[in-house]
Design a protein that fits this description.
The protein is α+β, with helices and mostly antiparallel strands and 491 residues long. The protein has helices at residues 22-45, 49-67, 69-83, 90-93, 98-102, 108-119, 152-166, 179-182, 194-199, 286-297, 299-316, 327-350, 362-382, 390-420, 428-461; strands spanning 138-144, 169-172, 175-178, 185-186, 189-190, 210-213, 216-219, 224-229, 236-247, 278-283, 480-482, 488-490. It contains 15 helices and twelve strands. It is found in: Membrane.
Length: 491
């Protein structure tokens, strides 16, 4: 062990020889030989060869940063400003389609649907919702009434509601398109609602679930709800709800983009205030709209979480001694994390990467990582000799903290890379963004955060207007900072 010098070793506590049996003596002898052989191998190979080189690189980097503080303070700000310009393209990079984000990219269901579309192509001139390979593009209205919707007054109101929907107009650019220009139908006319053609203006006895007449048979199970039938018969006595469907075209023509603009949000539901009929609606995009509203509902929770994390970081670095407190360094650590997030998001947006709502939780995770790195840097700074110059202290800080922070960054990057290989679109962009932000925290936290603390220390050392202060307590070596001709300054 004398040849190992400054190395740390594991020593096995061996009781007195007289207290050991022959078996235990042999066991401890083997343990000692194993440790001796292991240490000899470690000395020969040099187990810290990589750590020494990394530590040396970080020490050089820390000394360089400490010698040129303003360059490494201003450069990250300018770089973050330039990369943050990618948020200008945020609206164009949004990708919140539920099917695209929450289903496998190469799933078997998508392959089968593609085969069905190629084998059984749709015919917009002979529309039938039974031939749709998807849910289609549609809007549906549900009219309900406590007294029943099959009364003459309720049916008249529902018929007027249907005519209002069919007279809706969509403005796209400098042109206007009516519902008749976008609707899916057969033989040049929009697909009708059979329940209205059967009931409005006619006194018929409806049967459920199929209604048979001279013009053909019509299914009513998708149009009537809350149906009450006659005893032992299929005749309808009353119904509490009627559902109306309005399908839009899905062809490859120029009007396809207009179908997404045809919404029921602006529809004047004047009949909803009628006491006899209540109207509600949904569309094929309703789930998508609700999904897009979800981030707004958790903003308060995220704001509270950010406030708690930032407050905790500041309080943890606060000391009763105004000289030794690191409150400004803690604030700078939070700011460096924010700059890293801004740069990471902006860079990927500039590279035309999609932005999904699930990536909105990435800043909170990155904030925790950034605060962790900040605490490591502050702890390593406090372990340096206060008699050394600021560049030397920063070099020692980077040498001690750089290796551990780099290893953590590398393991996180590998874990996020595994997430990027996921077949789900909602997992890939957040993994990519988190990886970029994590690497940004590694760079910005070391340069911008370290420089801010460096400038504070330089400002503290370069004070020349200090007056002699009578010491009222015994000062330790950690509390004294000598700076040349200016004497001794209480720290």
């Amino acid at each position: 062990y004398q040849q190992l010098e400054s190395r740390q070793h594991v020593f096995v506590h061996i009781p007195p020889v007289g207290c050991l049996t022959r078996t235990r003596r042999r066991f401890y002898r083997q343990v000692f030989l194993v440790f001796s052989a292991t240490d000899a191998i470690m000395v020969r190979l040099g187990s810290d060869c990589l750590e020494k080189r990394l530590r040396l690189c970080f020490e050089v980097m820390g000394h360089l940063v400490g010698s040129h503080p303003w360059w490494f303070l201003v450069a990250p700000l300018l770089l973050s400003t330039g990369l943050g310009s990618g948020f200008y393209f945020l609206e164009d990079r949004l990708a919140n389609d539920i099917e695209e984000q929450f289903t496998p990219v190469d799933g078997q269901a998508k392959e089968e649907r593609r085969y069905i579309r190629e084998t059984f192509p749709g015919n917009e001139s002979l529309f039938s919702r039974l031939r749709l390979s998807t849910s289609g593009t549609y809007g549906t209205l549900i009219a309900t009434s406590e007294g029943g919707v099959l009364t003459a007054e309720a049916l008249q109101n529902i018929a007027e509601l249907d005519s209002e929907v069919r007279s809706m107009v969509v403005h796209h650019g400098n042109q206007s398109f009516a519902y008749e220009d976008l609707c899916a139908g057969a033989l040049g006319s929009c697909a009708p609602n059979d329940i209205l053609d059967v009931t409005v203006g006619n006194r018929v006895n409806l049967t459920f679930p199929w209604f048979h007449s001279e013009n053909g048979s019509f299914p009513l199970h998708g149009s009537l709800g809350g149906v009450e039938l006659c005893r032992n018969r299929s005749a309808v006595l009353s119904s509490r709800a009627i559902q109306l469907f309005y399908y839009l075209r899905q062809d490859e023509g120029a009007k396809t983009d207009l179908t997404s603009s045809f919404k029921f949000d602006d529809f004047p539901f004047s009949f909803s205030i009628c006491p006899s009929v209540q109207v509600s609606y949904s569309t094929s995009r309703s789930m998508q709209w609700e999904f897009q509203k979800t981030p707004g509902s958790v903003i308060r929770l995220f704001s509270a979480a950010y406030a708690i994390a930032i407050t905790f970081s500041i309080i943890s670095c606060w000391r009763l001694d105004n000289v030794r407190t690191k409150v400004w360094v803690a604030l700078c650590g939070v700011l460096s994390t924010a700059l890293a997030v801004l740069s990471g998001f902006g860079t990927l947006l500039l590279l035309d990467q999609p932005f999904v709502m699930t990536a909105a939780s990435c800043p909170f995770m990155i904030l925790g990582v950034g605060l962790d790195d900040m605490f490591i840097l502050i702890a390593c700074w406090r372990r340096t000799r206060v008699l050394d110059s600021v560049p030397d202290r920063l070099a020692g800080t980077y040498g001690d903290a750089g290796v551990s922070i780099s290893i953590t960054t590398l393991t996180n990057a590998l874990a996020l890379f595994v997430g990027y290989s996921s077949p789900f679109g909602s997992v890939r962009p957040p993994s990519n963004i988190s990886n970029a932000d994590r690497n940004g925290v590694w760079g910005w936290g070391g340069n911008f955060g370290g420089e801010f603390g460096d400038i504070l220390e330089l400002r503290q050392v370069q004070r020349t207007d200090l007056r002699p202060v009578m010491a009222t307590h015994k000062c330790s070596l950690e509390d004294v900072n000598i700076h040349g001709e200016n004497g001794i300054m209480l720290r």
